[in-house]
Amino acid sequence: MAHPHLVSSADTGLLVIDVQEKLFHMVIRNEAVERDILFMIDAAQAVNIPILATEQYPKGLGGTISSVASKLSGPKPDKLSFSCCGNPEVVQFFKKEVRPKLILIGIETHVCVQQTALDLLTHGFEVFLPVDAVSCRYPLDHHTGLRRMEQAGVVLTTVEALAFELVGAAGTPEFKTISKLVQERMKHLAANAVNH
């Protein structure tokens, strides 16, 4: 029997929060965060879990950045509330898909991500947050937001940990896809370490 704090392809969904043109270039570690957001989306697609992306006031903040938008099909619910739960479509989507566990990625850690995470807990979801796939403009806000969410019951983790949990075991076609994604990510990390 699996531990309740493990995600799986059978019970988990992915929510991509407000990865938008006018704000994303301002967040800390934006290149690394973009890579890890794309990694998490690729991993989610490899195991065929439902994915939904939101946009905060797209008229003012622009659409989802092209690298992310190109991987996502379907509508992206827009919102004015900072919490994604302010748009009823978001909660309805994951309830309809029967996904009691949600992975959150995107920006900003201390505003839309945090308010969404806390509201989702209230709606009865279990929330998983890969700390390498969320960001905001200032380190203090990022770290304080992570601490507050963890204290409220959000499970902090990483994109690679979640990818291996979603696939569950070696020896499947999905595992081969995840392994390739992990190897590509390792090459990027190694290249960045050399360049810095």
What is the average per-residue confidence, as pLDDT, rounded to a whole number? 94
Please outline the major beta sheet: 7 strands, parallel
H-E order: EHHEHHEHEHEEHEHH
Count of DSSP H/I helices: 9
Shape verdict: globular
Quantity of strands, as a count: 7
Rg, Cα atoms, Å: 16 Å
Helix content: 40-55%
Cα-to-Cα separation, first versus last residue: 44 Å
Return the structural class: alpha/beta
Low-confidence stretches: none
How much β-strand is present in the residues?
15-25%
Description:
The protein has 196 residues and is α/β, with parallel strands linked by helices. Helix content is 50%, strand content 16%. It contains nine helices and seven strands. Helix 2 packs parallel to helix 8 and helix 6 (109-122) runs parallel beside helix 7 (139-152). The longest helix is centred in the C-terminal third of the chain and has 23 residues, at 173-195. The radius of gyration is 16 Å and the shape is globular. The model has no long low-confidence stretch (mean pLDDT 94).
